Amino acid sequence: MELTDEMKAAIGKSGEPTTYEVTSLGIRTFCRAVGYEDGIYFDDEEAKKAGHKSIIAPPGYLGMPVWNPNGPARRADFFKSPFTRNLNGGTAVEPLEHVYAGDVLEAVTTLTSVEILPSKAYGQLMVRKTETAYKRQSDGKVVAKTRGTSLSY
Amino acid sequence: MAISAQTFDGVSEGQEFTLEEATDSQRLVIWAAASGDFYQIHYDDKFASNNKLPDIIVHGALKGMWVGKILDQIAGRDGWVKEWDVAYRAMDIAREPITVFAKVTGKREENGEKLVDFEVGTRKADGSVTTPGTGTVRLP
Domain locations in chain B? Predict the structure, then answer.
């Protein structure tokens, strides 16, 4: 199949904002999983000695979406996809500002490209690229951007 | 063991930094809690087996964040991780060690910043790279 008009029209569109909470528990759990050893990421005193107001999030940690089982779907599709199986193709992270425990971020994802490519393994592969900007509610600063590639077949 | 913070003048093209990471099931469960990715192929042996996998598999995003960590250690408190990207090219079976690497590919000064570019990724014991990418760090 080829790109539909709906798919082409979706390129450049942004989804609804999603709220992410950055908590000290979330940062410490992330540190424990990834294996961070620098105290500025989990020890308040160490972080303050280094000039920070609280522990900071390691690069790439941008909190967790606020869980609400009665809210809208977290990731609304930009268009109806004919493919049912999805793979995470890759991730890019661009940290722009320190992120602190207690920050609340508003994330907005924009669809930047869609392609349907021939695939030896799957016949056809849909490649969707997105960019998400994370803005801190308290000062309006964009603290990080991430770019994602999702593959559907 | 952590890598010590580097300086712009102290690193040279071709130099490679590495970290060894364990991929036991406990670690994958902690990552599931940290990331909110509770897909069972990462911690449920029976679920993985029913999906024709030889064992539970390592989360791709965890591998991506290990790359972020190695760059952060190179940057230290006085540097800054400008960006990194990874592609998830192949699965890594859990309970096998993974080597995370960052190899210097270039040094440049741009807008007053001393930047070092890296080839990054995760490597299996057989030497194959399952999560290739690039990264850039500002160093003092």
Answer: 16-23+60-138
